[in-house]
Every structure is written in structure tokens, then in C-alpha cells.
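Figure 2 data, in text form.
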Amino acid sequence: METPTAATGAGVTPEVLTAFEGHRRELCAYAYRMLGSSFEAEDAVQETFTRAWKSYGSFEGRASLRSWLYRIATNVCLDMLDGPQRRARPMDMNGPSRPDSTLPAPQPDYVWIEPIPNALAFGADPAEHASTKDTLRLAFVAACQHLPATQRAILIMREVLRFSANETAQALTMSPASVNSALQRARATMSKVTPAETDEYDEANEQQRKLVDDFVAAFEAYDMDTLTTLLKTDVALSMPPLELWVSGPEDVAAFMLGHGAACRDSRMVRLAGANGLPAFGHYKPSGEPGRWTPWSITVLELDGGAVAGLNFFLDTDRLFPLFGLPPELREPA
């Protein structure tokens, strides 16, 4: 963040800016739930801090700094959501495709829910991490996109951040009664569009860790017989920005051996996680021996001891730098 000047950030001291920074991750997670994009969420937080230090002279401490920053962040997000477009997952767009269906042309990046690195969204407090992880699931964020922007903000502030009706009303310049009414409408919509919950991922859970390790081993070996035994019967494979997804272990295997055959001999680089889920940088063979090039950020969803979702995000030009991944892998000389 650029250093404020006396003209634009009267009364802003280094201590105040440090206090702002202490809220960066939770504000980024909030903006991500609102916007469905990690890149837009980062932009929203930057704009929030810019507006905050410009108007800090008028902040009189009648609310907590956290509440005040959320009020600004909400207004930033509502400004950014000024339009009909909502982000989605391929599963929200249409029914499953046949594994041999012609691949469609990619859709623009603004169409899709994007993954967010755990490091952008979670603070250092494990308890806070656990309490917010479920609401960063891809399915939850996609469901939130069905809500009008103000209802979306109210649902997240009340049910995720645990703001009171009064605090939420102040942030949105509404009455508490209007907030409560909107919350009821938001809950009704969410009950219709939110898919069944999948398991939370716990790195300390030996069974889950083994499932993920077994999946990676089977995928890198391109052993479809083993891989399909790890998949839930209604597993979904999607590949944004392609408006295509397939469902079921047999169709996943058929897709992998058909359109996906170029991924044979891939390498998976484990990440610190995305959306609270196990995630990998997926590199495919380049055609040059000992060299692999970016293919996807791969995010796994788990349920009942099986893999329930295979999410291959193909926008590697934008996503690999976001996750701190190198532009290629090479075998050691």
C-alpha cells in the first residue's frame, strides 16, 4: 500500500496502518465471499485501505476499527458488484457432459468462481481458521452468488462474521428490521441453492491425508483403475474456464483417457491449500524430456472418505503467480 500523505491521510500514523494490516486477511476472505474472485478480493482490500486512510480524520472511534473497515469494504464490494453478472461453477451452468463431448471454447475469467490461496484468507489463529473454513468452500461461495449484493453482504456479516443486526445495519445504512428481513430472504434462497456439504479438510486427519496422497500417486501414475476407487459415485470433474463438467468415476476415467490424455505423466506440487481444501499446482509434460509446464491449480473436495470434486482451474497465467508457483518444472540435472 502506498504511503499516505498529510493531504490524503490526515492523522494516519504508522501504527494505524499496522492496525489496518492486521485485518487484511479477514477482509480479503470477506471480499472473496462477496466477489468470488481472489484477484478482485485483493483489489477490494487495497481500495478499502485507500479509502480508510483518506477518511481516517473523520473516524471518531464511535465504532471499532474493525467494524469501520468492514463498512468501507462492504461499500467497495457493492460498488464492484454493480451489474447483473454473477460468477458460477460449471456445475451451476448446465448438466454434466459426456466425456467424449467436444470441448467448448473457454469463457472469460469473470464468469467463474476462482480459488483463493489459504494464505490470503486465513489468519494465524487456528481457531479462527476452523470457524471460517467451511464458508470459503467453492460451493458456498458459488451459492452466495445467487443472492442480490446487499443480501449477500448481510448473510456473510450476520452468519459468517457474527456481526449483530445493529452493526450490520450501521455498515449498510439500513434499519435492523430491514437487515433481519433481508437475512430471512437470503437464508431461504441459500437453502435452495447450496449443495450438500462436503467434509472439511484437516491435515492432521490421517485418513484424509492418506486419501489425498493415494489420489496424487494414482494420478501421477495415470492409473485410472486405482484412481476411480478413490472417487465418490457422484464425483464431479470441472475445468474452468471451460463450460464443461463430467460426473461419476467411469466418466471421469473416460475423460482422463480421452481429452485429458495429455496429462499422463503429470507432476503435482502440493500447495498450502486453497479454500480450506487440499490443492496442487498441476504441471503436464511439455514434450521436452524432463520438463513440465503449468496445466492447472487443482483443488480436491472430499466427502465420506472419497474424493467428491476434482476442480482443475486452467487459468495458469494468472493463478500460478498468485499461488507462488514457478513457470515450469525440470528434473534435477
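Caption note: The first strand starts at residue 231 and ends at 238.
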